[in-house]
Amino acid sequence: MMRASIGIGANLGDAVQTVQAAIAAIAALPDTTLVAASSLYTSAPVDSSGDDYVNAVIQVETGFTAEALLTALQTLENQHGRERPYRNAPRTLDLDMLLYGDQEISSATLQVPHPRMHERAFVLLPLTEIAPETRIPGIGAALYLLESVSDQRIRKLS
User: Fold this and answer.
1) Which class would CATH give 2-156?
2) Which residues does the annotation mark as catalytic?
3) 31-35, 42-46, 69-73, 113-117 — which is least confidently predicted?
């Protein structure tokens, strides 16, 4: 079993309901247990336009390999109507594998840790809410990175 951290976001449709449904769907994956789920947050789009996002971060224990978990997450995105018309387009559902244990993975389809997670308040704030001791491999303690994103607008919803 491996602990994985997953970022969840949506800014099209009923984003709150979509994020909550995604949490439940990930928790229901075979050989996967939900360990923790952050509060929901709203944040402005980064490097994009459109409505504010609803975001959360969860941690799961899973028997999936990193690649298999990525495939399962992409399947869930597709089930929620995810389209990729251009980079950083508004999204019905965005699921990002942030961390997979303490592994560093670089393949054609997967980068772990997620390459910009340490630059995003919508990742760091919910992540440190549920796991303040988190270390990002190759970067450092997530808690100490919060100050560097303090200029990004983010608000707790629940």
Assistant:
1) alpha beta
2) 82, 91, 94, 96
3) 42-46
